[in-house]
Amino acid sequence: MKTIIIVAATSFLFACSSTDNSQAEQSVANKKIEMNCEVSSMTGSKLKRKRCVDKKQAEYERENARRLIRDAENNTATTDR
Fold first, then answer.
1. Which of 43, 50, 76, 81 reaches 20 to 30 Å from 13, CA-CA?
2. How far, in Å, CA of 57 to CA of 36, rounded?
3. pLDDT tens digits, residue range 29-60?
Protein backbone atom coordinates (compact mmCIF):
# COMPACT_ATOMS: atom_id res chain seq x y z
CA MET A 1 0.00 0.00 0.00
CA LYS A 2 2.82 2.41 0.87
CA THR A 3 4.59 1.69 -2.40
CA ILE A 4 1.45 2.46 -4.39
CA ILE A 5 1.09 5.82 -2.64
CA ILE A 6 4.79 6.63 -3.20
CA VAL A 7 4.61 5.67 -6.88
CA ALA A 8 1.43 7.72 -7.36
CA ALA A 9 2.92 10.76 -5.61
CA THR A 10 6.16 10.68 -7.60
CA SER A 11 4.37 10.24 -10.91
CA PHE A 12 2.11 13.19 -10.01
CA LEU A 13 5.15 15.34 -9.23
CA PHE A 14 6.88 14.39 -12.47
CA ALA A 15 3.73 15.12 -14.45
CA CYS A 16 3.42 18.59 -12.90
CA SER A 17 7.04 19.48 -13.54
CA SER A 18 6.91 18.47 -17.21
CA THR A 19 3.80 20.57 -17.83
CA ASP A 20 5.45 23.81 -16.68
CA ASN A 21 8.38 23.42 -19.07
CA SER A 22 6.22 22.76 -22.09
CA GLN A 23 3.98 25.75 -21.31
CA ALA A 24 7.01 28.03 -21.02
CA GLU A 25 8.40 26.74 -24.31
CA GLN A 26 5.05 27.26 -26.01
CA SER A 27 4.76 30.83 -24.77
CA VAL A 28 8.23 31.64 -26.10
CA ALA A 29 7.39 29.97 -29.41
CA ASN A 30 4.17 31.94 -29.65
CA LYS A 31 5.95 35.25 -29.12
CA LYS A 32 8.58 34.32 -31.75
CA ILE A 33 11.29 36.31 -30.04
CA GLU A 34 14.70 35.69 -31.48
CA MET A 35 17.12 34.97 -28.67
CA ASN A 36 20.91 35.14 -28.70
CA CYS A 37 22.41 32.52 -26.40
CA GLU A 38 26.04 32.13 -25.41
CA VAL A 39 27.84 29.72 -23.14
CA SER A 40 30.74 31.13 -21.18
CA SER A 41 32.64 30.58 -17.98
CA MET A 42 33.60 33.26 -15.51
CA THR A 43 37.25 33.96 -14.76
CA GLY A 44 38.56 31.52 -12.18
CA SER A 45 35.71 29.06 -12.65
CA LYS A 46 35.38 25.92 -14.71
CA LEU A 47 31.60 26.01 -14.55
CA LYS A 48 29.92 27.20 -17.71
CA ARG A 49 26.73 29.24 -17.76
CA LYS A 50 24.26 29.73 -20.57
CA ARG A 51 22.93 33.26 -20.97
CA CYS A 52 20.17 34.12 -23.39
CA VAL A 53 18.96 37.62 -24.29
CA ASP A 54 16.69 38.90 -27.02
CA LYS A 55 18.07 40.95 -29.90
CA LYS A 56 17.05 44.32 -28.45
CA GLN A 57 18.78 43.61 -25.14
CA ALA A 58 21.92 42.33 -26.90
CA GLU A 59 22.09 45.48 -29.05
CA TYR A 60 21.57 47.70 -26.00
CA GLU A 61 24.38 45.95 -24.10
CA ARG A 62 26.69 46.14 -27.11
CA GLU A 63 26.10 49.89 -27.57
CA ASN A 64 26.51 50.51 -23.84
CA ALA A 65 29.85 48.66 -23.83
CA ARG A 66 31.04 50.65 -26.84
CA ARG A 67 30.03 53.91 -25.18
CA LEU A 68 31.84 53.00 -21.95
CA ILE A 69 35.01 52.13 -23.85
CA ARG A 70 34.79 55.34 -25.91
CA ASP A 71 34.27 57.42 -22.75
CA ALA A 72 37.19 55.71 -21.01
CA GLU A 73 39.46 56.36 -24.00
CA ASN A 74 38.42 60.01 -24.15
CA ASN A 75 38.98 60.51 -20.41
CA THR A 76 42.45 58.98 -20.45
CA ALA A 77 43.42 60.93 -23.56
CA THR A 78 42.59 64.24 -21.91
CA THR A 79 44.40 63.46 -18.65
CA ASP A 80 47.64 62.37 -20.38
CA ARG A 81 48.20 65.76 -22.02
1. 50
2. 9
3. 656 678 888 898 888 888 999 989 998 999 99
Long-range contacts of 36-43 (CB under 8 A, 24+ apart): none
Task: Find out whether 32 and 51 touch, Cβ atoms under 8 Å.
Answer: no
Helix (H/G/I), strand (E/B), else coil: 9: helix
| Maximum Cα–Cα distance across the chain | 84
| CA distance linking residue 65 with residue 52, whole number of Å | 17
Domain ranges of the chain: 1-32, 34-81
33-39 — which CB contacts under 8 Å span 24+ positions? none
Residue 12 confidence (pLDDT): 62
What mean pLDDT is predicted for residues 10-17? 62
